[in-house]
Amino acid sequence: MDLFIIATASCILDDIAPFLIKFVFSRVYVPNRYDVGLQKELSNLKEEMAGISMVDEFARYIKLLRRSNNVEGILVKNVKQRTNRVLKLRMLLIYVFRALNGILILRLLYMYKNEPVIILPKDILWPIQNLLSWPCQHENAISLLMWLSITRLGISAFKKLHT
């Protein structure tokens, strides 16, 4: 029973982990105070520029425009740096999780290759019972390798159905 739960959870978590990591990072990595201050300053500058006539006060308008462009450039640079850092860390976590999950699955396959995951009543799997119990050769059972394949196929079909 433990093998069934561990194998199923491993397959499900392999597809859910990227979404969970993305959700956590969207909540943890929020803009810092400096960027929020720059955004407020930029919006104030744009409001001030909108209230000034470009023809009547050209010099003041151009000074505000230069300052606005400078603040916007700094803000864009900071946002790009933060986005790149978050993306790299998120991808690293996803790949590390998938590698660890792959190692877990390989270890389970090595340790339990002759153990059935599920033993069913006699002749319930009649036409394909030998295929489903392939590495372990236990009659009326589903082996770990076949259970992992069935679970992955089921999850991918479910994802296709809901996308």
Automatic annotation (TrEMBL):
- GO annotation (BP), single: tail-anchored membrane protein insertion into ER membrane
Q: Which UniProt keywords apply?
A: Endoplasmic reticulum, Membrane, Transmembrane, Transmembrane helix
Which GO cellular component term is one of those annotated? endoplasmic reticulum membrane
Topology within the bilayer: Multi-pass membrane protein
Chief subcellular location equals endoplasmic reticulum
UniProt GO MF annotations:
protein-membrane adaptor activity
**Location of the protein in the cell:** Endoplasmic reticulum membrane
Transmembrane ranges, per UniProt, are 92-112
Superkingdom, natural source: Eukaryota
Entry similarity comment: Belongs to the WRB/GET1 family.
**Designated name of the protein:** Guided entry of tail-anchored proteins factor 1
Q: Which organism is it from?
A: Cardiocondyla obscurior
The lineage is:
Eukaryota, Metazoa, Ecdysozoa, Arthropoda, Hexapoda
